[in-house]
Amino acid sequence: MSILVINAGSSSIKYTLYHSKTLERIDHNLIEEIRDHHEGFEVMRTQLLIHGIDITQINAIGHRVVHGGERFHEPTLIDDEFLAEITALIPLAPLHNPANIEGIIAARAIAPNVPNFAIFDTAFHQSMPPQAFRYPLPHDLYHTNHIRRYGFHGTSHYYVATQAAQILQKPLEELNLITFHIGNGVSACAIEKGKSIDTSMGMTPLEGLMMGTRCGSIDPSIIGYLMREKGMNIDEIESMLNKKSGLFAIAGTNDLRSVIDAKDSGDENAALAIDMFAYRLKKQLGEYMAILRGVNAIVFTGGIGEHSPLIHEMVCKGLEHLGIGLDEVKNRSNDIQIQSSTSAVAVLVIPTDEERQIALYVQKFLYS
Ligand code: AMP
User: Fold this and answer.
1) pLDDT tens-place string over residues 304-328
2) Is 80 annotated as catalytic?
3) Residue whose CA is closest, atom 9 of ligand 1?
4) What structural domains and CATH numbers belong to the chain?
């Protein structure tokens, strides 16, 4: 009676085991430094046996898959045809999808009779209209090469949106929300009547806001300039933009706690990094306030979004003219609702739980 949720990375497997009816968390573990995913699943099989769980007898496995392209709008039962289609999407997500696929193959090998489901980071954003998802580039690049904005962190944005609906005691379909997932990766989502109508990440998770080590949106001409003037090749540039930019580039570390400590000790680069980080979030908030006709709540989640009153304050400060006000005491005491008594817009701090959302999707498949 259990559901196993798998997040397979290139050299690690994170798994969480839930009771399939109550969704009580039975086990959670990160298996690191694996040579391949078959080895990882063998380690997991042994660990699950400690809890008396035989992996071949569980109800279902839910896999996080980063990129579902335009093909996958919702959680999908995995079969051979699915594997072929998802393999064809690898060029869109070369950093993530191969490991996700390896995890699926290993799961099917070790437990052939257990159904596997794929849950995509992109799926929630498939409701975006063309004006939001198209790039102003030649049509052919969209129709032939599938170059468009997809968005990521969808499982997290959806999960916190459902939690916000519970807190506000209103159906999600009646709510307009702006959700900020602020961790090492950072993205925002404009949710209209429960559906994503825009999000800050694009064809890849590199677009949009400033992140831990990713630059977010920059002038695309910088890439050509670096190739011509500095003789950098495309791999070097992509590596720099993904792994050596963002907070890391400006402050020397991608860990916001360390950046805040450095700022407090007078480090000017750390102060600049935090100003840039919060400024871009605030601009994003303004954009989404403009496209949503009325906003019920702003939601903060992710490691930073859940734990940094400083970032909440820097993003929401001075926005009384937009109906947004913070209660400083509630913010500093880590309350769930941190808006002031006069704020027209609720400001919520909600822990995300992507694994639980994946388990909820799988549970719906199993029992509805
Ligand atoms: P995540 O990727 O969601 O695990 O988030 C990681 C980020 O959250 C790192 O930049 C951490 O420094 C940041 N973080 C975690 N706890 C805190 C905290 N108490 N204050 C500020 N940032 C935090």
Assistant:
1) 999 999 999 999 999 999 999 999 9
2) no
3) 255
4) 2-120 (3.30.420.40), 170-349 (3.30.420.40)
